[in-house]
Amino acid sequence: MEIALTEEERQLAEAARSFVRKEIAPIAERMDREDYFPRDVFRRLGEHGFLGITIPTEWEGLGLSYRAQAIILEEIARASPALALSVGAHSNLFANNLACNGSDRLREEFLPPAVRGEAIGALALTEPNAGSDAVSIRTRAIRDGDAYVLDGTKQFITNGPVADLLLVYAKTAPDRGSRGISAFLVRREMEGFSVAKSLDKMGMRGSPTGELAFQGVRVPAEYRIGEENDGARIMMSGLNVERAVLAAIPVGIIAECLDRSLDYARLREQFGQKIGRFELIQEKIANMYTDLEASRLLLYRALDAVASDDRSRRAAAAALTFASEASTRCALEAIQVYGGYGYMRDLPLERLARDAKLLEIGAGTSEIRRLIIAQELLGPEFED
Ligand SMILES: Cc1cc2nc3c(=O)[nH]c(=O)nc-3n(C[C@H](O)[C@H](O)[C@H](O)COP(=O)(O)OP(=O)(O)OC[C@H]3O[C@@H](n4cnc5c(N)ncnc54)[C@H](O)[C@@H]3O)c2cc1C
After folding, report:
1. Burial 118-138 (b: 16+ CB within 10 A, else e)
2. 381 included as an active-site residue
3. If DSSP codes are grouped into helix, strand and coil, which group holds residue 38?
4. Which helix (H) or strand (E) holds 167?
5. Considering only CA atoms, which of 252, 170, 232, 236 is closest in space to residue 368?
6. Model pTM?
7. What is the spatial distance between Cα 281 and Cα 297, in angstroms, rounded to a whole number?
8. Which of 147, 192, 151 is nearest to 171 (CA)?
9. Mean pLDDT of the chain
């Protein structure tokens, strides 16, 4: 089964490919080496409409589907998974969540600058002691007159060091477990907010990741996103969309690894023949192709599921589990096809392998995704 793109999707993919070739491919290596975030390119992504794919047109977005969002991320990821991760955190985790759950006042004020790339968004859920067990976050939001006062620390936040706008989860009723969490919009310039640390990573370098501190940050009550204590519902539905859309990044990595392996297998000669003639190299290419097809089919199946408001979470969890592990596998195999040259930093393959590994960890680890799949299949009495 081929994934049939609509004419609009085909044109979007072509526009993204051309942008990536001109603006992103030339800086991808520098982003990695210098851990450099290209704010100017981010802005131009906004100017081209790539940051507001799923945002309704009334807030300056393109009003397109999650499929369209995935198409953009796949194209960016082929050159720079790190930039794709930052775009995903901005467009999907922050802006799409705000569009789905925010009040009209918040959407009117904050979505247009986010869509234009003038303001960078992030989502802050994880804490030093609350990763997989997200419901045990300790950041508090205590109501005080017409505001909430936020105190706590967030860990591993994509775009955190550069973000202007943050969607932050905090406990409004700590004794009520998952029913005591609320979501808030926090602006960088609010007093008491600071970037405690910019984190140095194995991969996804150039996508800034930070530890963030909230010390008595007064957030106006109207900056609450959704109802008080309804944060877990927003978080879970957002995570489902996030997993589905994010699976486009490993698909991009696999596609790049396959194309580069094909090029080299056709070119490189050993023992008087092209290495593509060796069956052990052919096996690697066949496996990469199979991983690519399987990952892409699972991706589009998951995108259909989230678009049809299917409440089940296993399609998105399965897509990201399979595609992320396949992308690590394919990047390592592509290095093997290139032999010693593949191990050199002149080629992007070792960077793609380092970047791919993150996709087995972020948006819920592979282990947590497997728990979601199994528990949903087993039935409600097996769910946490
Ligand atoms: C580069 C990067 C970017 C990120 N971006 C963001 C972001 O933008 N916003 C945000 O909020 N968070 C972000 N995260 C955080 C990410 O979602 C967490 O790292 C992830 O959920 C895992 O949490 P943890 O790191 O605390 O690991 P832990 O939860 O401590 O897990 C440690 C190990 O135990 C396993 N484990 C945990 N519980 C179980 C269980 N019940 N059964 C079996 N195994 C289990 C895990 O799978 C893992 O192998 C990011 C992380 C990274 C590394």
Report:
1. ebbbbbbbbbeebbeebbebe
2. no
3. coil
4. strand 165-171
5. 236
6. 0.98
7. 25
8. 151
9. 97
Q: What is the pLDDT at residue 383? A: 83
**pLDDT, position 310:** 77
Out of 23, 60, 74, 242, the active site residue is: 242
Task: Given CATH 1.20.140.10, say whether it is the number of domain 247-382.
Answer: yes
Token pair listed for 315: 């399609």
Domain 7-120 bears CATH identifier 2.60.120.830: no
How far apart are alpha carbons 332 and 288 in whole angstroms?
Answer: 11
DSSP-H helix ranges across 89-210: 97-101, 104-116
Instruction: Quick: pLDDT tens for 75-98.
Output: 999 999 999 999 999 999 999 999
Helix then strand then coil, in percent of the chain rounded to 5, is 60, 15, 25
Q: Does the pLDDT value for residue 2 go beyond 70?
A: no
Residues whose beta carbon lies within 6 Å of some atom of ligand 1 = 89, 122-126, 131-132, 156-158, 201, 204, 209, 358, 361-365, 367-368, 371
Q: Topology of 123-227 in CATH? A: Butyryl-CoA Dehydrogenase, subunit A; domain 2 (2.40.110)
